[in-house]
Write a structure and sequence with these properties.
By secondary structure, the chain is mostly beta strands. Helices cover 10% and strands 52% of the residues. The protein folds into two domains: 35 residues; 253 residues, Beta Barrel (Porin), CATH 2.40.160.40.
């Protein structure tokens, strides 16, 4: 047997092995033999993992004057999908209180799904468990209106999500870019000499690719509002945040988030609880170390 024939035989055996590997998926979903498997997936927060199309964190109408690194260990649990992940975020203050850039990366996640959720999502991962790397988000924040006296501060944010997340076959990430931009506003109210309360709200636009032939992109209204109580040693916050798509395919996620933070000299320790109220099925518990890296020069 010559070399070309050996290579062809090896290739055919490899294809045969791959086909047998997904026989269960073909039978489960009555595959038509023509449609690509990825066309069965639904690019929606309700039909993918918790880090595929998450609700963005809210800005509060002000930009921090310090640069900081955040390291978050999170666990998400739900009916049929339990996920643990590590989230890294660095924000650099270019001009104190005026311009900042942030990079956020869901570095790694471990997940276990049951067969019902696996099949609902058309996942091709038979055992329903594995490890994935997530998307990288890059944001730029600009202060439009400074907060002075009774005037509310206003911040404009632009965010780009890169197509860096993997494991599309298990419906963990979309392997497609997305973006959002928004305006946030907020104002501090003095409660005492050592305590103050911040009211804040956000509205904007979010879009992501859908992997569909009829609607190439889902356009969403991004929104949120919350309260932040701050003492010189601790802070407590609570907020509602979500976005609303127009496809009506579990694309209206709404979340409630609450956190408690305790300040050290350099590190602020935070505990966060998050619960999905609509089209996002997880409850999340997270610990974050917020490490101040330095203050930008004026």
């Amino acid at each position: 047997m010559n070399r070309s024939a050996i290579i062809l035989l090896a290739f055919l055996l490899q294809l045969s092995g791959q086909a047998q590997q997904y026989d269960w998926w073909v039978q489960k979903h009555d595959w038509d033999g023509l449609t690509h498997w990825s066309d069965y997936l639904k690019f929606s927060p309700g039909y993918m993992g918790p880090n595929a199309l998450p609700v963005p964190r809210l800005e509060r109408g002000a930009i921090d004057s310090t640069s900081a690194l955040e390291i978050s260990a999170r666990t998400h649990w739900s009916r049929g999908d339990d996920t643990q992940d590590l989230l890294l975020r660095y924000q650099h203050a270019f001009i104190p209180g005026r311009i900042a850039v942030a990079a956020e990366w869901m570095a790694i996640e471990h997940y276990v799904t049951d067969t019902l959720i696996r099949d609902e999502r058309f996942s091709r991962e038979r055992d329903g468990k594995g490890i994935s790397a997530g998307d990288l988000n890059v944001s730029t924040m600009f202060r439009l209106i400074p907060e002075e006296g009774k005037r509310w501060g206003v911040v404009f944010r632009v965010n780009l999500r890169t197509a860096s997340g993997d494991n599309l076959k298990a419906a963990r990430h979309t392997d497609a870019p997305g973006y959002h931009f928004d305006l946030s506003t907020g104002r501090w109210l003095a409660l005492s000499a050592s305590m103050r309360l911040r009211l804040h709200a956000t509205a904007g636009f979010l879009a992501y690719q859908t992997n569909r032939n009829d609607y190439y992109q889902n356009d969403c209204l991004l929104y949120g509002a919350g309260l932040l109580l701050e003492h010189h040693r601790f802070n407590v916050g609570s907020e509602l945040a979500g976005y609303s798509g127009y496809l009506h395919l579990k694309d209206d996620p709404l979340l409630w988030r609450s956190h408690f933070g305790f300040r050290g000299t350099v590190v602020e320790h935070r505990l966060m609880l998050q619960h999905g109220l609509n089209d996002w099925m997880w409850t999340t518990l997270a610990y974050t170390a917020h490490i101040v890296m330095g203050k930008a020069k004026s």
